[in-house]
């Protein structure tokens, strides 16, 4: 067996283990929080609360307008200067959820806006309150419409977690770097890392397809 | 009531009383304010001044409208739209019982029974488990009518209910409306279909530029020989 192949085979498990133990939980936790942030942000931006709107718009503006890597550094290395010291996981989850929340809020807001005005009017004319309209009429349709763009945001997040390596989290990319450091096989090892990311994202895409089918049964 | 949009005075001091059990058809040229009038009754638009009274319940538009009053008026005035606006993610039956269950907190199993009866009435019981996307326009509009009826409103409002339909499909919807008129349901219908107005309406309102030019019995309207504006409107409509 060639040397490269042997190194790659021996590296599969360490890299995959980092994926299962770090990349996936980090992505899932951050995404769950991001979704909550995104829904609240989208609703506030569609509301008439001027001051709240300004606050949430500023948040989206900042997090979409600055690089994720810079955000991670600011939170992890910068905040301690302001007296806020966070452990790497906390810093990563906060940064990733705020970043993905900003993007996903726009995906969700656009989906809500794409629902015809007649849906609101029909629901309101039945005497539904704002919350009833949202819950019974708008939310179910928003889920379907926002599935593709929100999955996109999720995929970006999964790949973005590779940046957590820079704040000392031993996720897949960092493990790959460590293996390269003593095997000197950057081509093979980084290709392996890429393939495992691709595998994770493919699973997500597959789940998206399934969910879309379920959510679109009425089309 | 008075309603203005930015710089357009859409309803000018409109003052009308609609009677229970009566079918009123609102006619008038495009932009005359017919839709606006219906939407003000359902509070999808809020007039700037005036009052709205249903039975002994009265609201004054110069005061701040409470959410409770708004919902109460809406529950009593069900609207059927030109574009149907059925909820696409609900089946036909779910569409019909959604209002009573969510808004009126009616019991679901008894509403299913009532919903099925209403669907039977509009000839669509066999479609109760279909989704709106699987129905023709005429069928969708009949479901929308059943949805409005399910609220047991005091008034049914229709804004050009057949304008989005082909002539063949228009007939099936008009038949349902005619049956409702014969049942003495209280209805206010905006339409461009003069033949329908002639046979189904008890009363005609003719609107132009946000004002009521005619308010009277249907035969008076069609036999009118004095008002030039109405005569030319009827003639222009008959050439379409
Ligand atoms: N949301 C709105 N904003 C601004 N102007 C409006 C709005 N809705 C209606 N208008 C204006 O008010 C006037 C009356 O409109 P309305 O829709 O009530 O007419 P209509 O009689 O229903 O006409 P049509 O037969 O074409 O449906 C029109 O001049 C219209 O441009
Ligand atoms: Mg109109």
Automatic annotation (TrEMBL), chain A:
TM region(s), chain numbering: 20-44, 56-79, 187-207
A GO CC annotation given for this chain: ATP-binding cassette (ABC) transporter complex
Classification via SUPFAM superfamilies: MetI-like
Keyword Membrane set for record: yes
Protein localization: Cell membrane
Coiled-coil residue windows: none
PANTHER family documented for this protein: L-CYSTINE TRANSPORT SYSTEM PERMEASE PROTEIN TCYL, MEMBRANE COMPONENT OF AMINO ACID ABC TRANSPORTER
Protein name: Cysteine ABC transporter permease
TrEMBL record, chain B:
GO molecular function, one term: ATP hydrolysis activity
Membrane topology of the entry: Peripheral membrane protein
Subcellular location: Cell membrane
GO cellular component: plasma membrane
Superkingdom in the source lineage: Bacteria
Protein name according to UniProt: Arginine ABC transporter ATP-binding protein
Domain ABC transporter: from-to ranges: 1-234
Keywords on record: ATP-binding, Cell membrane, Membrane, Nucleotide-binding, Transport
Naturally occurring in which organism (per UniProt): Ureibacillus manganicus DSM 26584
Principal cellular location given in the protein's record: membrane
InterPro entries hit by this protein: AAA+_ATPase, ABC_ATPase_HisP-typ, ABC_transporter-like_ATP-bd, ABC_transporter-like_CS, MetN_ABC_transporter-like, P-loop_NTPase
């Amino acid at each position: 067996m060639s040397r490269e192949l042997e190194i790659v085979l021996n590296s599969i498990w360490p890299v995959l283990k980092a994926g299962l133990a770090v990349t996936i939980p980090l992505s899932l936790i951050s995404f769950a929080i991001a979704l909550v942030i995104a829904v609240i942000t989208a609703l506030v931006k569609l509301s008439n609360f001027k001051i709240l709107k300004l606050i949430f718009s500023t948040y989206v503006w900042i997090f979409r307008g600055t690089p994720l890597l810079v955000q991670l550094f600011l939170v992890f290395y910068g905040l301690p200067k302001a007296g806020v010291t966070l452990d790497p996981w906390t810093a990563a989850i906060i940064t990733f959820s705020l970043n993905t929340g900003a993007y996903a809020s726009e995906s969700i807001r656009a989906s809500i806006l794409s629902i015809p005005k007649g849906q609101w009017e029909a629901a309101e004319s039945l005497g539904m309150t704002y919350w009833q309209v949202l819950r019974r009429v708008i939310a179910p349709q928003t889920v379907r419409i926002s599935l593709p763009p929100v999955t996109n945001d999720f995929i970006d997040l999964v790949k973005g977690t590779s940046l957590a390596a820079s704040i000392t989290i031993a996720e897949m990319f960092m493990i790959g770097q460590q293996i390269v450091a003593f095997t000197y096989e950057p081509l093979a090892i980084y290709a392996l890392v890429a393939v495992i990311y691709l595998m994770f994202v493919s699973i997500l895409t597959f789940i998206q397809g399934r969910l879309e089918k379920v959510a679109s049964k009425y089309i | 009531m008075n309603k203005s949009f930015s710089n357009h005075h859409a309803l000018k001091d409109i003052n009308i009383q609609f009677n229970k059990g009566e079918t009123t058809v609102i006619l008038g040229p495009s932009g005359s304010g017919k839709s606006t009038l219906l939407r003000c009754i359902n509070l999808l638009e809020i007039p700037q001044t005036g009052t709205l009274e249903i039975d002994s319940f009265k609201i004054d538009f110069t005061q701040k409208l409470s959410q409770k009053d708004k919902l109460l008026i809406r529950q009593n005035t069900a609207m059927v739209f030109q574009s149907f606006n059925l909820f696409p993610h609900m089946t036909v039956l779910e569409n019909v019982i959604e209002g009573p269950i969510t808004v009126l907190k009616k019991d679901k199993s008894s509403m299913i029974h009532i919903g099925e009866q209403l669907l039977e009435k509009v000839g669509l019981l066999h479609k109760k488990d279909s989704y709106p996307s699987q129905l023709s326009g005429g069928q969708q509009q009949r479901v929308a009518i059943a949805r409005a009826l399910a609220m047991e409103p005091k008034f049914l409002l229709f804004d050009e209910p057949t304008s989005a339909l082909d002539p063949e499909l228009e007939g099936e919807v008009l038949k349902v409306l005619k049956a409702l008129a014969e049942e003495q349901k209280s209805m206010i219908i905006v339409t461009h279909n003069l033949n329908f107005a002639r046979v189904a309406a008890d009363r005609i309102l003719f609107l132009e530029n946000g004002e009521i030019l005619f308010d009277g019995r249907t035969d008076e309207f069609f036999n009118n020989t004095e008002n030039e504006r109405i005569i030319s409107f009827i003639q222009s409509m008959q050439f379409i």
